[in-house]
Amino acid sequence: MANEEQANKARDAHSDLLANRGAHAIGVESGRAYGKQGFVVVAHVDDKTKSDIPDSLTVKHKGDTLKVPVVVKSSERFRPE
């Protein structure tokens, strides 16, 4: 279970990896809405079935290695008007 600080650290450390695998937006949210405890990294992709996003991201926090869950959501890219 990750807290918000740990989830943000994982997002910062792995944002390039997630973007290279199809995420067009990456955020951190409470895991409750996704059936998970603590906080999760949310990767928004165009087509969930074609993404190659890992189930979790590993981050070191205060000497410990922690796996932060990743949730993949299908969403349209932001288009400025």
Question: What does this 3D model show about the protein?
Answer:
By secondary structure, the protein is α+β, with helices and mostly antiparallel strands. Helix content is 21%, strand content 40%. The protein has 1 helix and 4 strands, in the order αββββ. The protein has one helix spanning 4-20; strands spanning 23-30, 39-45, 56-61, 64-74. The chain has a 4-stranded mixed beta sheet, with helices on one face. The longest helix is centred in the N-terminal third of the chain and has 17 residues, at 4-20. The termini are far apart. The model has no long low-confidence stretch (mean pLDDT 91).
Oligomer kind: single chain
Shape summary = globular
Gyration radius (Cα, Å) is 13 Å
The pLDDT mean sits at 91
In DSSP terms (H or I, runs of 4 or more residues), the helix count works out at 1
Total count of strands: 4
Low-confidence stretches: none
Q: Could you describe the largest sheet, including whether it forms a barrel?
A: 4 strands, mixed
Give the N-terminus to C-terminus distance in angstroms: 39 Å
Name the helix and strand elements from N-terminus to C-terminus, one letter apiece.
HEEEE
Structural class: alpha+beta
Strand order of the largest sheet: 1-2-4-3
What percentage of the residues does DSSP assign to strands (E)? 35-45%
Percent helix among the residues? 10-25%
Main traits of this protein?
single chain, globular, 4-stranded mixed sheet, 21% helix, 1 helix, 40% strand, alpha+beta, 81 residues
Brief description of this entry?
By secondary structure, the chain is an alpha+beta fold.
